[in-house]
Design brief:
62% of the residues lie in helices and 0% in strands. It has 68 residues and is mainly alpha-helical.
């Protein structure tokens, strides 16, 4: 349900993920954005696979209209 998604929250964490050199921070930020958008499971495991990372980035791009 996109009406329940806080776009500024997603944008903030996608921006942080893209701007860090830390793999742990990138994964944590993408996990937060991905679980908020409900495109990945909320299971506490923020060690995302490359496929999960791309899923989150694709969903954020679609949600934000290419602004991410």
């Amino acid at each position: 349900m996109t009406e329940d998604i806080n776009k500024s929250y997603v944008q903030r964490y996608v921006d942080r993920a893209k701007s860090t050199d830390s793999i742990a921070e990138k994964n944590n930020c993408l996990y937060r954005a991905g679980t908020h958008m409900e495109v990945i499971d909320c299971n506490g495991n923020d060690n995302l696979t490359p496929d999960q990372q791309q899923t989150v980035l694709n969903a954020a791009d679609k949600l934000l209209g290419g602004q991410s």
